[in-house]
Structure formats: structure tokens, C-alpha cells
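User: Is it possible to get a 3D structure for a protein together with its bound compound? The compound here is magnesium ion. I've pasted both below.
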Amino acid sequence: MAERTILHMDLDAFFCAVEELRDPNLKGKPFVVGGSPQGRGVVSSASYAARKFGIHSAMPTAQALRLCPTLTVISARHGDYAAWAKKVMDILSDETPLIERISIDEAFLDVSQVRESGRQIALRLQAEIRGRLGLPTSWGVASNKLVAKIATEVGKPEGCVVVPPGEEAAFLAPLPVQMLWGVGPKTQEKLRQAGIETIGQLAGMPERALRSLFGSRGPELAARARGEDERPVVQHHRRKSMSVERTFARDQGDRELLESVLLSMAEELGRRLRERDMSAQVVRLKLRWPDFTTMTRQRRLAQPTDLDEEIFAAGLALFEGLWRSGRKVRLIGLGVAELGAFPRQLELFDGTWQLERRLMEAVDRIRDKYGEGAVRRARLMRKKEG
Ligand code: DCP
Ligand code: MG
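Assistant: Yes, that's possible. Here is the predicted structure of the complex:
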């Protein structure tokens, strides 16, 4: 394979950084974006000041507050984060079409064909995102995705770490094995028992020892530890499904409330589809009862949609098939699947759909400008979560 130049970008404390744009007083303070400590809320994103107390993503908010009693807890505004992330991705797309988005705040770029050096491109994009949007990013530059992503991690925050070709293994050697893609807690524990803690030690393990520990996965693991990775940057990476779910602080059995939660989820999914110019063929519902049994049902639509109302109608029909009046629900989730490109040709045949689509586009614009709460369907106004 010809030598490649791969960039990896990840926003620093992303949800927190967006909250700092809204309220600059938060800068430098310990705060998190996350769920409420009274319920079963967890931290989504922790400011760097909060991380000094040992607070991190996925930690229960109640525990975070014990570590730092003066911590500010902000509830997530997902619509805002999606809108800011899209602005960042648009700046990257202006640079090159060879871009693969791998999460809300992360992307790979293949700039092998660009004359400028990887470092120059990364520093220029970092400055542009900081200057135009006010958001901090970290960058990794390497000959493949695996090493570029770890380089980003090492340089955080606001770093730009370049690993020259040929230096991959030496760069990885001192780092802990769990930084390697594919090494989860179980693999890490096995390695620890074998006395292996760094990526360099893993790379130096005899093939026989690797095979006896990990079977056919062994050689692959060793190749990664040497910093080898041939995976291409996949353009227009299309997700096959997306979903939102909500665990209630208290189990809920009220029909109106559950329906209004479903509707707000349908609105979020519709918006995310429209932002990506995609439509969904399948709608899925997930319900978890207080005893933790979980049911999922799905329904195939007559034609693909990106409209809140149609997603909601399908979700509601599934809900009615599973739920009996008054039955308490612990978690409710709504998702869409079999995503595809937006079926524009349908516009010619379906006037109502076209009207609804234009209405939704107007609503999206208002929400971009004034926030998610600016436009709500009337039925969402009726009831607040009890
Ligand atoms: N996120 C979440 N729950 C998690 C992890 C992440 O909701 N368990 C959300 C919030 C983060 C965003 O995804 O802001 C991006 O995830 P990152 O892992 O990149 O975390 P941050 O951007 O917050 O911090 P970092 O500076 O380490 O990248
Ligand atoms: Mg991030």
C-alpha cells in the first residue's frame, strides 16, 4: 500500500465546550453536562477543570458531585451539539471529500493527495475551527487511522501530534495497552496477568504466547501493537441506524407523558435524518419494564421518511401494541433503521408530504437560531414529566 497521510480530529470536552459558548462564565470552572444526580443520571462530558477531580464520562452524576461538591451540572441540549458538530464537519468537508465521521465529534481525513504536509493542514483546520466557531479541537497525524487516533488522544487538549512514517511502533511502545483499539477491559486483564502493560511489551510478545492467550486474534493484536492498520478512510460513511432512549428517574405509567416523550424522540430523529439528507425505512421501539425485561418491536414503513409525524405515528402504533394502560415503564427508546439517501423523486407525487417537509425545514431553521425549545408541537406542551 502506498504511504498515506491520515488526520484524526476530536473536539475537546465537546458538550462542555458548546455550553461555554452559551455561557462564557463556565470557562475554567468544574462542570459537567449530564443527567440529574437524583435520578440515574450519568456524566456525558466533563470540563477539564472537573477532570482534575477524577470526574469522567459515564460516571454517575451523584458520584461526580461527591468528588467535587461545587460541581455545576448542566442538562444536555442534544440539538445544539448536533448543530455545532455539523458546522465543524462542514469546515472539514470544505478541505477534502475524503472524510469519515466516526462519532458526533470525531472524524478521519485522508489527505495523502494534498501537497501541504499533514501537520500544516491539521494546524490550519484547528485554527479555523477555533477562529470561526470558538471550539477547541485536538489532532493526530499519522500513516494510518489507528495511530492517528491515538496521537489525538495523547495531545489533548488543543494538541496536534504528528507521528512520522516508520515511527509508529516506537510512538506506541510506552503507552498503556488499553489505548489500543480492540483492547477492552477483558483483554487488558488477561494481558496484565501475563505481565503486559504497555503496547511495546505486547508488540514484543512471542507469537506462541499470543496464540495461547488470544487464539487466532493474537497475530492481529500484535500487528496493531506495532502500529499497523490498513483500513481505508471510508467516504460518506453512512450509518445504518440511529436511536434515542430515555431512562426515567422514576418508572412512568402515564400515557400522555409516555406519548409526549415518544414525540420528542421522533422530533429528534426526524431532525437528525434531515440534517444528513437521509430517510428511514424502519422504525423501532424499545421498552424496558421495572423488572428490566426489555422488549423491542419494529415496523417497516410503506415508504422511507424523514418526517417527525410519520416516525411518531409508527412508534406510537408499536407502543400501543406492547403497552397496557397504567403499566410502568423504566426506559423508552425510539430508533430508525435501514437509512438511505433522501428519496427526492417522491416529491413529484406526494403534495402533502412535500408541504410537511417544507414545514419541517422551516422549524429546523428556527431551532438552529433560537434553540431546540423554540418550536414545540402542541401536544408536547400539555404534560411535563412528573
Ligand atoms: N458522550 C456521552 N457519553 C459518553 C461519552 C461521550 O454522551 N459516555 C458525548 C459527550 C461528549 C461527546 O460525546 O462531549 C464526545 O465524546 P468524547 O469521548 O470525545 O468526549 P469529550 O469530547 O467530552 O472529551 P475529550 O476532550 O476527551 O474528547
Ligand atoms: Mg471529544
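The radius of gyration is 23 Å. Residues 241-382 form a domain with the Dna Ligase; domain 1 fold (CATH 3.30.1490.100).
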